[in-house]
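Ticket #4471: structure output looks truncated?

Reporter: J.K.
Steps to reproduce: submitted the chain below (292 residues) through the standard prediction queue, then opened the result file.
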Amino acid sequence: MSGAGGLLNYRGLCKLLLSGDRMFLPHHTTVTSETSRPPKHWMLMMHGIYGRGGNWRTVARKVVNHRPDWGVLLVDLRMHGKSLDAPPPHTLTRAAADVLALVDQQRELGHSVEQILGHSFGGKVALSMRLQRAGLGPLWLIDSAPGAHPGAMENSENTVVSVLRMLRQLPSTFPDRDAFLSIVREAGFAPVAQWLAMNLEACPDGYRFTLDPAALTELLEDYFATDLWPAIEVSNTPIHVAAATRKSSIAEADRERLKEASKVHFHEVEGGHWLHVDALEPLVDLIVASLD
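Returned output as attached by the reporter:
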Protein backbone atom coordinates (compact mmCIF):
# COMPACT_ATOMS: atom_id res chain seq x y z
CA MET A 1 0.00 0.00 0.00
CA SER A 2 1.35 3.46 -0.78
CA GLY A 3 0.25 7.06 -1.18
CA ALA A 4 0.75 10.67 -0.31
CA GLY A 5 -2.80 12.08 -0.52
CA GLY A 6 -5.52 12.42 2.07
CA LEU A 7 -6.93 14.91 4.56
CA LEU A 8 -4.80 17.07 6.79
CA ASN A 9 -6.41 18.01 10.09
CA TYR A 10 -8.62 21.10 9.71
CA ARG A 11 -6.65 23.48 11.92
CA GLY A 12 -3.36 22.53 10.27
CA LEU A 13 -4.83 23.09 6.81
CA CYS A 14 -6.25 26.50 7.81
CA LYS A 15 -2.88 27.55 9.22
CA LEU A 16 -1.15 26.65 5.97
CA LEU A 17 -3.73 28.47 3.86
CA LEU A 18 -3.59 31.62 5.99
CA SER A 19 0.20 31.69 5.82
CA GLY A 20 0.09 31.51 2.03
CA ASP A 21 2.27 28.38 2.16
CA ARG A 22 1.64 25.35 0.00
CA MET A 23 0.99 22.14 1.87
CA PHE A 24 3.41 19.40 0.82
CA LEU A 25 2.89 15.76 1.75
CA PRO A 26 5.98 13.65 1.04
CA HIS A 27 5.56 10.37 -0.79
CA HIS A 28 5.44 7.33 1.44
CA THR A 29 4.84 3.60 1.38
CA THR A 30 3.52 1.39 4.14
CA VAL A 31 4.92 -1.91 5.41
CA THR A 32 2.74 -4.25 7.45
CA SER A 33 2.87 -7.92 8.41
CA GLU A 34 0.96 -10.57 6.49
CA THR A 35 -1.56 -11.07 9.27
CA SER A 36 -5.19 -10.14 8.62
CA ARG A 37 -5.37 -7.67 11.50
CA PRO A 38 -4.46 -4.03 10.80
CA PRO A 39 -1.61 -2.56 12.89
CA LYS A 40 -2.53 -0.77 16.11
CA HIS A 41 0.66 1.30 16.17
CA TRP A 42 2.91 2.90 13.56
CA MET A 43 6.58 3.81 13.28
CA LEU A 44 7.82 6.30 10.70
CA MET A 45 11.29 5.79 9.16
CA MET A 46 13.36 8.42 7.32
CA HIS A 47 16.43 7.85 5.14
CA GLY A 48 19.66 9.83 4.87
CA ILE A 49 20.82 12.26 2.19
CA TYR A 50 20.76 10.88 -1.39
CA GLY A 51 18.51 8.03 -0.19
CA ARG A 52 14.81 7.16 -0.28
CA GLY A 53 12.31 5.41 1.97
CA GLY A 54 12.85 2.08 0.25
CA ASN A 55 16.40 1.95 1.67
CA TRP A 56 14.78 0.95 4.98
CA ARG A 57 12.31 -1.61 3.63
CA THR A 58 14.28 -4.64 4.86
CA VAL A 59 14.45 -3.20 8.39
CA ALA A 60 10.74 -2.36 8.28
CA ARG A 61 9.76 -5.86 7.15
CA LYS A 62 11.77 -7.49 9.90
CA VAL A 63 10.30 -5.17 12.54
CA VAL A 64 6.69 -5.85 11.55
CA ASN A 65 7.37 -9.58 11.30
CA HIS A 66 8.55 -9.49 14.92
CA ARG A 67 5.70 -7.19 15.92
CA PRO A 68 2.65 -7.58 13.63
CA ASP A 69 0.74 -5.10 15.83
CA TRP A 70 3.03 -2.41 14.37
CA GLY A 71 3.17 -0.95 10.85
CA VAL A 72 5.90 1.19 9.30
CA LEU A 73 5.69 4.29 7.11
CA LEU A 74 8.70 4.67 4.80
CA VAL A 75 9.02 8.32 3.77
CA ASP A 76 10.76 9.91 0.79
CA LEU A 77 12.00 13.20 2.25
CA ARG A 78 11.66 16.35 0.15
CA MET A 79 13.68 16.31 -3.08
CA HIS A 80 14.37 12.58 -2.68
CA GLY A 81 12.71 9.50 -4.17
CA LYS A 82 9.25 10.42 -5.40
CA SER A 83 9.07 13.65 -3.37
CA LEU A 84 10.80 15.73 -6.05
CA ASP A 85 8.11 18.41 -6.42
CA ALA A 86 8.54 20.00 -2.98
CA PRO A 87 8.47 23.81 -3.06
CA PRO A 88 11.53 25.74 -1.84
CA PRO A 89 13.17 26.67 0.42
CA HIS A 90 14.79 23.31 1.07
CA THR A 91 15.67 23.24 4.76
CA LEU A 92 15.50 20.90 7.74
CA THR A 93 12.61 22.94 9.12
CA ARG A 94 10.61 22.54 5.92
CA ALA A 95 11.48 18.83 5.65
CA ALA A 96 10.26 18.36 9.23
CA ALA A 97 7.04 20.29 8.51
CA ASP A 98 6.41 18.03 5.50
CA VAL A 99 6.65 14.93 7.65
CA LEU A 100 4.51 16.42 10.42
CA ALA A 101 1.82 17.09 7.80
CA LEU A 102 2.05 13.41 6.86
CA VAL A 103 1.75 12.41 10.54
CA ASP A 104 -1.40 14.53 10.79
CA GLN A 105 -2.82 12.99 7.62
CA GLN A 106 -2.16 9.49 8.92
CA ARG A 107 -3.88 10.31 12.20
CA GLU A 108 -6.98 11.33 10.23
CA LEU A 109 -6.80 7.92 8.56
CA GLY A 110 -6.62 6.16 11.93
CA HIS A 111 -2.87 5.48 11.85
CA SER A 112 -1.24 6.68 15.07
CA VAL A 113 2.48 7.37 14.53
CA GLU A 114 4.02 6.56 17.91
CA GLN A 115 7.73 6.31 17.11
CA ILE A 116 9.93 8.14 14.59
CA LEU A 117 13.27 6.93 13.23
CA GLY A 118 15.76 8.89 11.17
CA HIS A 119 19.11 7.86 9.71
CA SER A 120 21.86 10.50 9.41
CA PHE A 121 20.18 13.47 7.64
CA GLY A 122 16.80 11.94 8.54
CA GLY A 123 17.83 11.96 12.20
CA LYS A 124 18.15 15.73 12.18
CA VAL A 125 14.78 15.96 10.44
CA ALA A 126 13.37 13.96 13.36
CA LEU A 127 14.94 16.36 15.87
CA SER A 128 13.53 19.35 13.98
CA MET A 129 10.12 17.67 14.16
CA ARG A 130 10.57 17.42 17.94
CA LEU A 131 11.29 21.15 18.19
CA GLN A 132 8.18 21.96 16.17
CA ARG A 133 5.96 19.56 18.09
CA ALA A 134 6.95 18.65 21.63
CA GLY A 135 4.33 15.91 22.00
CA LEU A 136 5.94 13.46 19.58
CA GLY A 137 6.68 9.95 20.80
CA PRO A 138 10.11 8.35 21.17
CA LEU A 139 12.74 9.05 18.52
CA TRP A 140 15.42 6.84 17.00
CA LEU A 141 18.55 8.58 15.69
CA ILE A 142 20.63 6.21 13.58
CA ASP A 143 24.25 7.44 13.49
CA SER A 144 23.05 11.03 13.35
CA ALA A 145 24.95 13.89 14.98
CA PRO A 146 22.68 16.63 16.38
CA GLY A 147 25.15 19.53 16.36
CA ALA A 148 26.24 22.07 13.74
CA HIS A 149 29.37 21.47 11.66
CA PRO A 150 30.67 24.83 10.41
CA GLY A 151 32.90 24.59 7.36
CA ALA A 152 31.79 21.06 6.47
CA MET A 153 30.73 22.10 2.96
CA GLU A 154 34.34 23.16 2.26
CA ASN A 155 35.88 20.01 3.72
CA SER A 156 37.39 17.98 0.85
CA GLU A 157 37.58 14.90 3.11
CA ASN A 158 33.84 14.87 3.78
CA THR A 159 32.48 12.01 1.67
CA VAL A 160 28.92 13.38 1.53
CA VAL A 161 30.18 16.72 0.19
CA SER A 162 32.56 15.00 -2.26
CA VAL A 163 29.66 12.97 -3.65
CA LEU A 164 27.67 16.18 -4.12
CA ARG A 165 30.54 17.74 -6.10
CA MET A 166 30.60 14.67 -8.31
CA LEU A 167 26.81 14.82 -8.85
CA ARG A 168 27.09 18.45 -10.00
CA GLN A 169 29.36 17.32 -12.85
CA LEU A 170 27.21 14.46 -14.14
CA PRO A 171 25.91 14.59 -17.71
CA SER A 172 22.17 15.17 -18.12
CA THR A 173 21.52 11.63 -19.42
CA PHE A 174 23.23 8.24 -19.65
CA PRO A 175 22.81 5.64 -22.41
CA ASP A 176 22.39 2.90 -19.77
CA ARG A 177 22.87 2.17 -16.06
CA ASP A 178 26.39 0.86 -16.63
CA ALA A 179 27.46 4.24 -18.01
CA PHE A 180 26.32 5.92 -14.80
CA LEU A 181 27.98 3.30 -12.62
CA SER A 182 31.23 3.65 -14.54
CA ILE A 183 31.35 7.43 -14.00
CA VAL A 184 30.65 7.10 -10.28
CA ARG A 185 33.25 4.36 -9.82
CA GLU A 186 35.91 6.25 -11.76
CA ALA A 187 35.26 9.26 -9.51
CA GLY A 188 36.23 7.10 -6.53
CA PHE A 189 32.79 6.27 -5.15
CA ALA A 190 32.52 2.58 -6.04
CA PRO A 191 31.07 1.58 -2.61
CA VAL A 192 27.99 3.79 -3.13
CA ALA A 193 27.60 3.47 -6.91
CA GLN A 194 24.79 0.89 -6.87
CA TRP A 195 23.03 2.78 -4.09
CA LEU A 196 23.14 6.07 -6.01
CA ALA A 197 21.91 4.23 -9.12
CA MET A 198 18.57 3.73 -7.33
CA ASN A 199 17.94 7.36 -8.31
CA LEU A 200 18.08 6.64 -12.05
CA GLU A 201 14.91 6.64 -14.14
CA ALA A 202 14.30 5.81 -17.77
CA CYS A 203 13.94 8.69 -20.24
CA PRO A 204 13.84 8.97 -24.07
CA ASP A 205 17.66 9.25 -24.21
CA GLY A 206 18.33 6.35 -21.85
CA TYR A 207 18.48 7.22 -18.14
CA ARG A 208 18.63 10.39 -16.08
CA PHE A 209 19.67 10.97 -12.48
CA THR A 210 16.60 12.33 -10.69
CA LEU A 211 18.16 14.12 -7.70
CA ASP A 212 18.67 17.87 -8.08
CA PRO A 213 22.19 18.91 -6.93
CA ALA A 214 21.06 22.49 -6.29
CA ALA A 215 18.27 21.36 -3.93
CA LEU A 216 20.62 18.89 -2.24
CA THR A 217 23.14 21.68 -1.72
CA GLU A 218 20.46 23.73 0.08
CA LEU A 219 19.54 20.78 2.28
CA LEU A 220 23.14 19.93 3.16
CA GLU A 221 24.10 23.54 3.88
CA ASP A 222 21.21 23.80 6.32
CA TYR A 223 21.98 20.36 7.77
CA PHE A 224 25.57 21.34 8.60
CA ALA A 225 24.60 24.83 9.84
CA THR A 226 21.78 23.78 12.18
CA ASP A 227 22.35 23.01 15.87
CA LEU A 228 19.64 20.68 17.16
CA TRP A 229 21.04 19.92 20.60
CA PRO A 230 18.12 21.89 22.12
CA ALA A 231 15.72 19.25 20.79
CA ILE A 232 17.59 16.64 22.83
CA GLU A 233 18.08 18.70 25.95
CA VAL A 234 14.40 19.67 26.30
CA SER A 235 13.00 16.27 25.32
CA ASN A 236 10.42 14.77 27.69
CA THR A 237 10.26 11.43 25.83
CA PRO A 238 12.99 8.86 25.13
CA ILE A 239 15.52 9.36 22.37
CA HIS A 240 17.39 6.25 21.25
CA VAL A 241 20.75 6.84 19.57
CA ALA A 242 22.38 4.00 17.61
CA ALA A 243 26.00 5.01 17.01
CA ALA A 244 28.23 3.16 14.56
CA THR A 245 31.64 1.96 15.74
CA ARG A 246 33.29 2.60 12.34
CA LYS A 247 33.18 5.73 10.14
CA SER A 248 30.54 7.20 12.40
CA SER A 249 29.15 10.67 11.82
CA ILE A 250 29.04 11.19 15.62
CA ALA A 251 32.30 12.61 17.01
CA GLU A 252 33.65 11.37 20.32
CA ALA A 253 32.78 14.59 22.17
CA ASP A 254 29.19 14.33 20.90
CA ARG A 255 29.01 10.70 22.02
CA GLU A 256 29.91 11.67 25.56
CA ARG A 257 27.40 14.50 25.55
CA LEU A 258 24.67 12.17 24.27
CA LYS A 259 25.47 9.60 26.96
CA GLU A 260 25.01 12.28 29.62
CA ALA A 261 21.66 13.56 28.28
CA SER A 262 18.85 12.54 30.64
CA LYS A 263 16.39 11.13 28.07
CA VAL A 264 18.93 9.53 25.72
CA HIS A 265 19.39 5.77 25.49
CA PHE A 266 22.80 5.39 23.83
CA HIS A 267 23.49 2.19 21.89
CA GLU A 268 26.90 1.54 20.34
CA VAL A 269 26.41 -0.82 17.41
CA GLU A 270 29.22 -2.68 15.67
CA GLY A 271 29.28 -1.54 12.06
CA GLY A 272 29.72 1.43 9.76
CA HIS A 273 27.56 4.51 9.17
CA TRP A 274 24.96 2.51 7.19
CA LEU A 275 23.96 0.38 10.18
CA HIS A 276 20.78 -0.83 8.45
CA VAL A 277 23.14 -2.67 6.07
CA ASP A 278 26.19 -3.41 8.25
CA ALA A 279 24.32 -4.40 11.43
CA LEU A 280 20.84 -5.33 10.25
CA GLU A 281 19.91 -7.92 12.86
CA PRO A 282 21.35 -6.15 15.95
CA LEU A 283 19.66 -2.92 14.88
CA VAL A 284 16.31 -4.63 14.35
CA ASP A 285 16.60 -6.28 17.77
CA LEU A 286 17.15 -2.88 19.41
CA ILE A 287 14.23 -1.28 17.59
CA VAL A 288 11.87 -4.16 18.39
CA ALA A 289 12.85 -4.08 22.06
CA SER A 290 12.01 -0.36 22.22
CA LEU A 291 8.45 -0.98 20.97
CA ASP A 292 7.54 -2.45 24.36
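Triage note (M.O.): checked the attachment and the full C-alpha coordinate line is present. The longest helix spans residues 92-108.
Status: closed, working as intended.
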